[in-house]
Design a protein that fits this description.
Elements lengths: L3 E2 L1 H15 L3 H16 L10 H10 L9 E5 L3 E5 L5 H19 L1 E9 L10 H4 L4 E7 L21 E5 L6 E5 L6 H9 L9 E2 L5 E2 L12 E2 L4 H23 L12 E8 L7 H17 L14 H13 L1 E2 L4 H12 L5
Parallel strand pairs: 3-4
Antiparallel strand pairs: 1-12, 2-3, 4-11, 5-6, 5-11, 6-7, 8-9, 8-10
Helix pairs in contact: 1-2, 1-3, 2-4
Length: 347
């Protein structure tokens, strides 16, 4: 890994690059905040590693630089936006704020976004919701891309279709961010470039044979990623991928049945206020008991202890906020040409 950088310096660097590329100031700041948060949590393929591609999209005009989403529908607890291909992180932060406001009034608030641009690391959004004592569910798909085969098939239909959720406990929140495929497109590309293999048979060749070679997805015709569960239990990841498609493209009324527009996302955001259900104190009492039960479970051989989802990321975040963010070694070299082109000093 490379030298460490302060999170504030990285946010300023990314904000300046995006603003000079043409994004409105608030949008540049929102995108930078979410990308750096991804690196803080250790999601190194979905943090600043995405910035060169985002800058290229801004330059080409395939990421909309300015404006507001259009309201497609607005019911008390259910809102639908047309994101107009505006920056995904900015749209999701706006959607979370609105969903939280509606949740406090109604118990739950849901915002669905069609035609968003890519939204980066899902886990990067969640703690800002749990810090308010609220529960959040966030998922997305990209109807313009497919790389994951349905269970039993050998041709791509889905994207990895990540699903994230978080909720408060008496201590740290539980934070989960999982894909409906064994791995992501971004990690697959990184491993392929680095000449490395998957740790296991995470993909299929074009002929439908399990493989640990990420390059299988670059053949013609391409291979595919396996759904979560792999060749044995991939029906589970496949089923969840269908759920994500229904929550995103289905509820948004825009997805794989429509012409593609380029790299982007269809997004589902839902916030729930426990105070409107069994009570905020009772919610925390229950979630803390389950968390305590998990932590008290004797570890099996090879494990030091039982951890909760998100615990490692939160520890890494705290350590990197104090000691600096350790970027993947390929990130700053990929940004050097953009820094020179846009006259922004490297951190």
């Amino acid at each position: 890994m490379s030298a460490r950088h302060s999170a504030a310096a990285l946010r300023t660097f990314a904000t300046d690059l995006l603003a000079r590329a043409g994004l409105e100031a608030d949008k540049a700041a929102a995108v930078a905040e979410v990308l750096v948060e991804g690196d803080l949590l250790g999601h190194t393929t979905h943090g600043l590693a995405l910035l060169p591609a985002y800058l290229a999209e801004v330059e080409k005009g395939t990421m909309t630089r300015a404006g507001e989403p259009a309201v497609v529908a607005d019911f008390p607890a259910a809102v639908t936006w047309d994101g107009k291909r505006l920056p995904g992180p900015w749209l999701v932060l706006r959607a979370l704020a609105l969903a939280a406001t509606r949740a406090r009034q109604l118990g739950t608030g849901t915002v669905v976004i069609r035609r968003s641009h890519h939204i980066a690391c899902l886990a990067a959004y969640l703690q800002r919701v749990t810090d308010q004592g609220l529960m959040v569910l966030l998922t997305c798909s990209d109807p313009n891309v497919c790389s994951v085969a349905p269970f039993g098939g050998r041709r791509e239909v889905f994207t990895p279709n990540p699903l994230a959720a978080a909720w408060p406990t008496g201590g740290e929140p539980v934070i989960l961010d999982v894909s409906m495929s064994i791995t992501t497109n971004a990690l697959t590309r990184r491993l392929q470039v680095e000449g490395k293999r998957f740790p296991g048979a995470w993909a299929l060749t074009a002929e439908g044979l399990p493989t640990d070679d990420p390059a299988a997805l670059a053949t013609k015709p391409p291979g595919t990623l396996l759904p979560t569960g792999g060749v044995d239990h991939g029906h589970k990841g496949y089923a969840f991928a269908l759920l994500v498609e229904a929550l995103t493209g289905g509820l948004a009324g825009h997805g794989r049945a429509d012409p593609g527009e380029g790299w982007g996302a269809t997004v589902f955001v839902q916030v729930m206020d426990p105070a409107c259900f069994g009570g905020a104190a009772e919610f925390r009492r229950q979630t803390e008991q389950v968390a305590a039960n998990c932590r008290a479970t004797p570890p099996r051989p090879g494990f030091e202890r039982v951890r909760l989802p998100g615990e490692s990321g939160l520890r890494r975040r705290a350590e990197q906020l104090a000691g600096g963010v350790e970027l993947h070694p390929g990130i700053l070299p990929a940004l050097e040409p953009w820094a020179a082109k846009l006259n922004v000093a490297l951190p």
